[in-house]
Amino acid sequence: MMDFKSWKADLERVLPHLQRVALGSAVVGIFPLSDRVALGLPRDQKLAREVIRLYRPMKWKARLFAHLLEGVSRTGVLRLFRSKGPGEMVPEISWLQGVSDLGFLGCHPGHGIRCVLLSREEDGGLRVTKVAIGGKLAAVVAEGETLRELGARYRGVVTFGEAETGDGWAAFWTPHVAGKGPQSVLGEGVIDLLEGWLRPEKVTIGNLSWVEGLSRRLPEKTGERLKAQEIRAALVHGDFAPWNLRGAPGGLVAIDWEWAREDGLGGLDIGHGLLMEALLVKGLAGADLVEAVLTGARQEGIAGYLERCGWGDLNLWCLLSLLYSGDQTGQEMARELTALQNRMEQPSVI
C-alpha cells in the first residue's frame, strides 16, 4: 500500500483505492480541507450537507468555515470541484454496491486511508460506513466487534449493522445519527449518558492491569495513593469529546468507539473530554490546562457525578485523566503532570 501522508498531496494516489473498495463509479466531488481532512461530496445537495456535518470542528474559525461550506453547498457550486467516477466500477463493500448517492469524510492520514462514508439507502435512510484501507485494519475490525457487543447492553452506543473485510480493507456500518450534539462536554445530557455507563461495583485502581504502566510515571508515594482509590467500574468510550457525540430522540449517542474498554473507571471519559477541550479548542497547556480541567470538574453536574464515581480527591482524578488521555492520544503531558503535582503539595488547594 502507498505511503499516505496528505489528502492534498496524495489525493490522486488515494482515490483509486477508495474507488475500488467503497466509491465504485459514484460521482463524488473531492474537496481537501487540509493535509489531514478531506470531504467527498455527492451531487445530491441534501446528502452533501449531511456529509459536511460529519466534519465537526470545535475552533470557531473552523466552525465558521464549515458553516459557510454548508451554505455554499445549497447553491450547487460545489459541483464545480473535480470529481471521479470511472466506468462501471462496482465497490467491493457489498452494502455499497448499487448505491449511487454517497459521500465521505476523509480522516487523519496517520491512520492510513480511513474514511467515514455516508450513503442513502433505497428507503431514504442514511447509513454510515467506516472503512480502513491498507493499514491499521485491526482497529476498525475491533471497533465493529465492540459495537456488536456493547450496543445491546448500554444506551447511547451507536447501533451496529454489519462488518466485512476484503483484500486489504475492513469496514462496518451503522445507522446515521444526524442530531447535532453538544459543543462541550459541559453540555446538556452528557452526565446522563455517562451515568448510564456506570456499574454498581467499585474496583481498586491498583488492581487494574492497564493502570500499572501509567502509574510508573508518578512519584512512588503519589502512585500508591492513586492505586489505593476505590472507584465505580464503568464502560469507557476512550475518546469522549463533543465531536464524538450526536443528538438522538432518546438522548445523546456516542460514535467512534475505537478506544472503548469495559474494564474502565467512572470519571475517565469526562476527564478526557475536559482535557481535549482545554488542549485542542482553547489551546491551553501546563498549569492553565490543569486549572481549566479542575474548574470544569467543579461544575455542579460534573462534581456530583465524580462524587458518585468515588472521586473524593479531584487532584487524583485529574492526575489519572492526564496520564490516561496522554497515553491514548500520544500527547506529551509532562508540563501538566508537573503543574498538578506541584498543586497537590499545597493541601488547601483542590
Secondary structure blueprint with pairings:
Layout lengths: L6 H17 L4 E5 L5 E5 L2 H10 L5 H14 L9 E2 L17 E5 L6 E8 L5 E8 L3 H14 L11 E5 L2 E7 L14 H6 L2 E7 L4 H7 L4 H8 L2 E7 L8 E2 L6 E2 L6 E5 L2 H14 L4 H12 L2 H10 L4 H16 L4 H11 L6
Antiparallel strand pairs: 1-2, 1-3, 2-4, 4-5, 5-6, 6-8, 7-8, 9-10, 10-13, 11-12
In short:
With 350 residues, the chain is of the alpha+beta class.
Q: Can you tell me about this structure?
A:
It is a single chain. The protein is an alpha+beta fold and 350 residues long. The protein has 2 domains: 7-175, Phosphorylase Kinase, domain 1, CATH 3.30.200; 190-344, no CATH class. Helices cover 40% and strands 19% of the residues. The chain has 12 helices and 13 strands. The chain has helices spanning 7-23, 45-54, 60-73, 137-150, 190-195, 209-215, 220-227, 268-281, 286-297, 300-309, 314-329, 334-344, and strands at 28-32, 38-42, 83-84, 102-106, 113-120, 126-133, 162-166, 169-175, 198-204, 230-236, 245-246, 253-254, 261-265. Helix 2 (45-54) packs antiparallel against helix 3 (60-73), helix 8 (268-281) crosses helix 9 and helix 8 (268-281) crosses helix 11.
